[in-house]
Amino acid sequence: MFDEIAECNALVLDGCSVLRPKFSIMIPTYNRSELLKRSIFSALRQSCLDDFEVVVVDNCSEKFHFERIYSFVLSLLPANIRLYRNNKNIGMFQNWNMCIYLARSDSITILNDDDLLSPFFCRYFDKILIHNLVILKNKIELLGATVTSFENDPAPRIELLNIAAFLKGNPANGSLGVIFDKQKAIKIGGYRPECWPTSDYDFLYRYYRKYGGVVVHSIQ
């Protein structure tokens, strides 16, 4: 899976000075240059963690959109952000796999280009990252985007992920609020495009079955 995409991209801009950050916020995008700006801003605003990278992986957007993306990311430098561009459109879930492949940290979250992260997304990073897989469940709708928010929560409830969560449906909202380990994701083969449109469900289930995980609920 990852061998197929390894040569399909090029690094365009790199403002990340740390080669091994503690956390990678990966943003796959395609033809959403305006929405993407908000996603990037929300990712860069993390107030509870300094050592992280934001990586935008453009899936061969049309020229108009990519020029806007390039100009915007360039204006943010020297922020801890990188921009890659695929030399062809490899599909949505293969681009998610590209995000896994390009992350420099072993702790990853994939942020869709039409969603946002709260500045407090990483608030409990050290506490929850002892687990193999973390699903943050507190989500709110804001300006048409879904946001993960733990701003005023002093002690979220953490429970083991179990099979019942998958029998009820997808325990996560796509990739939003999901934190996982890069090497473990690679070992299970990443996202399987052939399972579209439920490749995210399939990935989480296979990851959970092999490594377990937790769900973090806000008490708000």
Sum up the structure in keywords.
9-stranded mixed sheet; globular; 220 residues; 3-stranded mixed sheet; alpha/beta
Topology, pairings included?
Elements: H1 2-5, E1 9-14, E2 23-29, H2 33-44, E3 52-58, H3 63-76, E4 81-86, H4 92-102, E5 107-110, E6 116-117, H5 125-128, E7 133-136, E8 139-142, E9 145-148, E10 157-160, H6 163-167, E11 178-181, H7 182-187, H8 199-211, E12 214-217
Parallel strand pairs: 2-3, 2-5, 3-4, 6-9, 7-12
Antiparallel strand pairs: 1-4, 5-11, 7-11, 8-9, 10-12
Question: Can you tell me about this structure?
Answer:
The protein has 220 residues and is an alpha/beta fold. It contains eight helices and twelve strands. The strands form two sheets. The chain has a nine-stranded mixed β-sheet with strand order 1-4-3-2-5-11-7-12-10, sandwiched between helices. Helix 2 packs parallel to helix 3. It is globular, with a radius of gyration of 16 Å. The N and C termini lie far apart (40 Å). About 3% of the residues have low confidence.
